[in-house]
Amino acid sequence: MTLSETKIWRACLYARLSKDDGDRTESHSITGQRELVQDFLKSMPEIHLRCERVDDGFSGVDFLRPAFVAMMEDIRNGKIDCVIVKDFSRFGRNYIEVGRYLENIFPFLGVRFISVNDHYDSEGEHSDSDNLIVPFKNLINDAYSRDISVKIRSQLAIKRKKGAFTGAFATYGYFKSPENKNQLVIDKYASEVVRDIFRMKLEGFSQQGIADLLNAKGELSPMEYKRFVGLNYTNNFKRNNKALWTAVAIGRILKNRIYTGVLEQGKSGTPNHKLKNRIYKPKEEWHICDNMHEPIINKQIFEVVTALLLSDTRIAPDKESVYVFSGLIICDVCGNSMIRKTVHRDKKYIYYICSTRKNGGSCTQKGISENKLIPIVLHTIKKFVSVVVAVDDLVKNMHSKRERELQTLKTSLSARECEAERYRRLKGFVYEDLKNGLLEREDYIEFNALYSQKLSDAEAVASALRRNIDAFVSENKECDFDVTELNRKVVVSLIEKIIIERGGSVDITFMSRDEYSGLIRR
User: Fold this and answer.
1) Is 170 in a helix, a strand, or coil?
2) Overall pTM surpassing 0.70 (yes/no)
3) CA contacts within 13 A on the Cβ side of 261
4) Whose CA is closest to 488, among 341, 348, 332, 381?
5) Of 139, 95, 98, 132, nearest in space to 115 by CA
6) Backbone dihedral angles phi then psi of residue 247, each to the nearest 5 degrees
């Protein structure tokens, strides 16, 4: 074939760098791979470089890498017919998959494959030894990846056993210590949101109700908060709607024991370095360490909330929260729960009956009216508080809690004001770009409308927060501790269960220290 008849190859330079398999040397850097291939192509005039595909931070074991998939799409569409890599390990570290591409897929698609450092060219002359050396090199690359995976897994297991945090990102409410990335420290702002979530659950709100309240206040969801503080954050303006709080996200927080200072790690994993499907492990295989970081939530409060999540307490119709006694009243005769029932005659009567009896069972419990139960429980709680709890400590704790709640509101207001100011500046920037001819009018209209809406939303939330702060200050000027009426938070914070005995007598089991726990009888 003459020079004029020489086939022109349309090539793609493929580069890969993994962050988890030890490929951190300068020779393996993306720049190093690019320069090596470009220098090689100077002596190959028949190969024209048409594109470059880079997978930065992807393991060579998995062949579903974004840039690799895009390159294969280019091949199938006829855009390229030649692939050039620095060496076989950059192409992949899965012995079986690399062999499948070199021996079957690329020849079938008519693709020329070149590995510069391995002196391999599928269009060149091949000796018998190549049939042994090439598979052997790929086998070595595969073994290297497996060896690195085993070492990393063992190192992470050792860290987990010692109580070191090994997650990629800190759990919402915490951040990684600047001095030690394996140590969690409290995020003052986000931790107050976590406390609010637990407080609202104690007050009887459902997970969806809590999510709705946080969204109404303009609180950033955990995903958006990570971006806000700069974790995995890109400067490109996000045009789609913000990720909002959901009932699922609230549930995860309420069930996460990390907020009590307990690390539970190693709950799931992959079978090996080649398989990505996660397998959940039995609890006895978890790595559980206590007191490894400062808790956000008291363990007793966490256990109360856990019990609430396990109990069947549904939100009443047209109500934001559950009834005061939901899930707490037990029938002493049959041991099942008692349920609230409303009867309308000349006036409304509310009473609790055994669920067994209501469903046609043989329980003989007659039930108890709410008008009788409320004063009994209220009187017993007052008695319990006066005898068991130091009122001065309660007052001190309540004042401290009010200060934290007020500070949370002020911090949230400051964040919304900063957000509003940011959108004001962005509106100014796009106007200047329009004046200077850097932005088309259609784009200006789109961006201006977008920023105007964001500004309006931020100002509305800030205005609501100012009203909330004023109301909070006004309500707490002269507020002393005194249990004058029952509410959901008081009841679930102090009471484990209320037992209605045959004949209507009431036994109340309080949740407290061991020396004060037990039955206080009325």
Assistant:
1) coil
2) no
3) 10
4) 381
5) 98
6) -60, -35
Q: Which residues, other chains included, contact 481 with Cβ-Cβ below 8 Å and sequence gap of 6+?
A: 391, 394, 395, 398
Mean pLDDT: which of 35-39, 215-219, 279-283, 309-313 is highest? Answer: 35-39
Bridge-based pairing of strands 495-500 and 329-331 is: parallel
Q: What is the pLDDT of residues 207-224, one digit of tens each?
A: 888 898 888 888 888 888
For residue 51, the SS3 value is strand
Q: Is the Cα torsion angle 436, 442, 444, 447 positive or negative in sign?
A: negative
Nearest residue to 298 via CA among 403, 154, 194, 144: 194
d(C-alpha 285, C-alpha 297), whole Å:
25
Contact indicator for 105, 98 with CB cutoff of 8 Å: no
| 243: amino acid identity, one letter | A
Question: Residue 10 is which amino acid?
Answer: R
Residue 59 structure tokens: 């393991």
How confident is the model over 149-187, as pLDDT tens digits? Answer: 555 566 666 766 776 776 777 889 888 888 888 788 888
SS3 state at 288? strand
| Chain mean position to CA 8 | 50
Neighbours of 520 (CB within 10 A): 18
